[in-house]
Amino acid sequence: MSQNKVIFFAIVTVIAAIIVFQLNFDNKFEIMVDISGPYVGTTFPNDLGYDGEGIKIAVIDTGVDHLHPDLFGFGPGGKIVGGYNFVDESKMPVDTNGHGTEVSGIIASDGQLSG
Questions:
Q1: Does some domain include residue 21?
Q2: Spatial separation of the C-alpha atoms in residues 72 and 112, rounded to whole Å
Q3: Is residue 43 part of a domain?
Q4: 37/44 Cα distance (integer angstroms)
Q5: Of the residues 15, 28, 36, 109, which has the fewest C-beta atoms closer than 10 A?
Q6: 11 in any annotated domain
Q7: How many domains are there within the chain?
Q8: Residue 63 and residue 102: Cα distance in Å, rounded?
Q9: What residues contact 50, with CB distance under 8 A and at least 6 apart?
């Protein structure tokens, strides 16, 4: 690869990172399950009786807000059964960005609450 192509790629990558950061800066999230579910055709699993019971999923992301009401807390009765900070094992896996909580909510929440 020529040096000009490498420099162009680096500039585009930096600009894209700046744009994404600016778009995500306010961290505003809205739950729109009533619109998005039917739009992509995801009501059929529920119609067939599938509710996710017994399914275990690991999320490797920015952490998770274990106090978020849609995730029903940490431990027995909650949706979050454990966590580990792979970046700094001396710290709790608390979500300081919001992305990990959003991903976990997409996977595990029932959409009854928002926040």
A1: no
A2: 11
A3: yes
A4: 10
A5: 28
A6: no
A7: 1
A8: 10
A9: none
Query: Which phi and psi (to 5°) does residue 63 adopt?
Result: 110, -170
| pLDDT tens column, 62-92 | 888 888 888 887 777 778 888 888 888 888 8
> CA distances (Å), 98 to each of 18, 60, 74, in order?
18, 13, 17
Give CA separation, 60 vs 8, 42, 88, in Å.
31, 24, 14
Tell me if 60 is assigned to some domain. Answer: yes
Task: Report whether 54 contacts 63 (CB < 8 A).
Answer: no
| pLDDT for 22 | 41
Residue 69 is which amino acid? Answer: P
Q: How many CA atoms lie within 13 A of 98 on its CB side?
A: 9
Look up the domain containing 43 and give its range. 30-108
88's tokens:
């700094």
Q: What is the residue type of 45?
A: P
Q: Which of 22-26, 27-31, 90-94, 105-109 has the lowest mean pLDDT?
A: 22-26
